[in-house]
Write a structure and sequence with these properties.
This protein is mainly beta. It has a domain of about 130 residues: Lipocalin, CATH 2.40.128.630. It contains 1 helix and 32 strands. Strand 26 and strand 27 form a beta hairpin.
Length: about 375
Amino acid sequence: MKLIILFISTAFLATGCSYLKKHTPSKRLVLQKKWVSSTLRSEYLGSSVLHRFEPLAYKDLIIQGNGIDGVSAYTKASGELVWSLPIKNGVEAGAVIDNDVLYFAANDGYFYAVKAVNGKIFWNFPIRSEGVGAPAVKNGSVYFIAGNNVAYSLDAKTGRINWPYKKTDTSNISIRGASTPLVKNGKVYMGFNDGYLVALDAKTGKAQWQKLLNNNRRFKDVDARPVIDGVNLYVSSFGGSLFSLKANTGDVNWVLAEGGYSAVTVVGDKLLYSTTSGYIMSLDKASGKVLWKHKVNKGHGTQPKHYKGFVVYGESSGKLFLLDFRTGKKVKSFSPGRGVTSSALVEKNGDIFFISRDANLFALTIKRIEKKNIWNWEQN
């Protein structure tokens, strides 16, 4: 009798485990749209504009500018408009927030400081050119490069000028854009459209050293934001190469013969890099060796970001992608319609924000849900 009971119990456990394994809903990774909001104040039927402003998170707001008519703030949760500041020809290059103040250069020829909570203007400063580069703020000063190749340091509270720095423009053809300054250890590192990276004294604006990164290509521009990691800098020129340099001297550690427009992303001992030749790459940080590369099929790739084992990037005429950080293989994608033109803001909870070619601000989230709850359009 005991043997019969044992047999029945064993059979039940085997059958039960098989049943549970078969009927327990498995989960699948998805890029799920939370909301989308137009950033335009009115319908726009003009020529195509590249919106490069990477969204900024401020408390429960997302702040986004477009290259047509201004900058606005939306609720993170629902995309509801909170405030909007109209600016002629828009704010395309990006902004920075410091001590509750939003700083940006605009295409109406002014540099602005506004309240991040409501968009009210504190001060503006005439730069007499388009604002094609995002700023940096450090120790009470704001630094940026205007469209006429002049770099400025302004007092962050008042907008009064600390110093200007003019780099001689020797380039006949230039890519639209300007390097976002890097301020570190008393120096300001800036790239210019003549192919040079310059290290300036942050207080005086005097040049400490300069390094020619590109002298033999059509597009010499050093528009990528320099990135520092320890004692080394990483920066590229548009039509040239990616350099690893000693931050104190500008001496070269290594060079990768692949140009780039956006900053690298440092992840441990690796770099993520978007090239002007149309690849997203993973590199060994110490040597510059290419570990893998993923082909960008539609337009150019935005700066790749890292989130929990995934690489997040957008194609300017295509989709937003998730790649496997280890291999570069595609994991997921999301189509916003006509392309992703800004680098994505990726938050710790998996929320992703970016602006599209149509000036629409998208909010997505990376999540795992039961397969039975996945709609057909989420199967990318």
